[in-house]
TrEMBL record:
Domain of life of the native organism: Bacteria
PANTHER family with a match to the protein in the record: OXIDOREDUCTASE WITH IRON-SULFUR SUBUNIT, OXIDOREDUCTASE, IRON-SULPHUR BINDING SUBUNIT-RELATED-RELATED
Pathway field: Alkaloid degradation; nicotine degradation
Descriptive protein name: Oxidoreductase
Gene3D superfamilies reported for this sequence: 3.10.20.30, [2Fe-2S]-binding domain
Pfam families attached to this UniProt entry: Fer2, Fer2_2
Length: 171
């Protein structure tokens, strides 16, 4: 039954097209998890503070708990699971594996998506709060990585290994 409070939302998630009839108030995170069974993005704080729900939304990192699904009709969503394939991990995921960039793993999908998005931002020349020169973002220091990844929390405190993994992937 159609209702003024429900809308059809079409998304491409990890290469697969979906159309779902959802309540206009549902977040992208809840649509992914509850309606599509895509449980890779995690529900941590549900307030946009922890980054566990981070995905790449039309190529840019986004916290899905803070965005309405209807606002992203027609969007391309890429989760950490959609970044590589069974034969070849994405370079960031491979670096996380090689550098122990995770412990319990709960935040890892969001960390990986955020790292991929962050590295794309660096390539595009986007400065961060700690950038010394807003016109020169060529050097990706540990401080730059920590600042750019500050929206992703790790309760296990694997931060040194996460920074090392991102440095490796950046090379």
């Amino acid at each position: 039954m159609k209702s003024a409070h429900f809308t059809d939302v079409s998304l491409r998630v990890d290469g697969t097209d979906h159309t779902v009839h959802v309540d206009n108030r549902i977040t992208l995170l809840d649509l992914l998890r509850e309606h599509l069974g895509v449980t890779v993005p995690k529900k941590g704080c549900d307030h946009g503070q922890c980054g566990s729900c981070t995905v790449l939304l039309d190529g840019r990192r986004a916290t899905t708990c803070l965005t309405f699904a209807v606002a992203n009709d027609g969007a391309e969503v890429q989760t950490a699971a959609g970044l590589g394939d069974q034969d070849q991990l994405h370079p960031v995921a491979q670096a996380f594996l090689e550098h122990d960039g995770f412990q319990c793993g709960y935040c890892t999908p969001g960390q990986i998506c955020s790292a991929v998005g962050m590295l794309d931002e660096v390539k595009a020349g986007s400065p961060s709060h700690v950038s010394d020169d807003l016109k020169d973002t060529a050097e990706l220091t540990d401080a730059e990585i920590r600042e750019r990844m500050s929206g992703n929390l790790c309760r296990c405190a694997a931060y040194p290994n996460i920074v090392d993994a991102i440095q490796k992937a950046a090379r």
